[in-house]
Task: structure prediction
Amino acid sequence: MQQAVVNMSETKVNSNFNKSTGLPRKRFYRARAHSNPLSDSHFPVPTSPIHVDYSLHYPQIFSSGQVGSARRIQFADIGCGFGGLLITLSTLFPDTLMIGMELRDKVTEYVKERILALRVSNPGQYQNVSVVRTNSMKYIPNYFEKGQLSKMFFLFPDPHFKEKNHRRRVISPHLLDEYAYALQVNGIIYTITDVEELGEWMKACLEDHPMFEPLTDEELKADPVVGLLSSATEEGQKVDRNGGQTFQAVFRRIGMADSVI
Result:
């Protein structure tokens, strides 16, 4: 099957855009806060990472139809929402390819249009960031090779409060096996939530997994990305405005996992 990709080489101008900023207006892309990751959403998926057409995502970097390049995506924002973190990271790490993975179609379309508009208004910038509509809980191995990623982000995921729905949580012992496969040794997994119970759950899952270890306090302070987990995201900004509290868990993929995977 072909890849479910939003073609990042085309843009359009219509009433969905703010005339003064040139950016899409979020109210035209509203969707439910979360989607059921266990539902059978219908969109094509690449059969393997080598079938991901990078030219559709990064048309100024890769030629049309180019697959199998030595240069690979390194950052993945799982459930990227409206793309706030990706946009910020794009200019902080201009030589790093990154992608947002989002299940909701309208939200994915908003992020696509946002990136395209930023490319037009800032020539030469934002060419390293893209978005794809997909179910990351099912298709991570279809997009990323073993040890490909250096950073994975799970920011304000759906808490799925009911115990019967905990299997839908994006951080779980089973899914951590897949994330460990995609992460390179010393790669970092970032999580944050404003739901204390979910924060404890994600931290416990990572602590119990043999392939991850927490960053030290010194490492957290030295990592420029940690401070962006809340401030660069729409969800984090909302929590801050409401005086809420957030709970982070940042872990490193350790080398001993190589003998397990």
Summary: The chain has nine helices and seven strands.
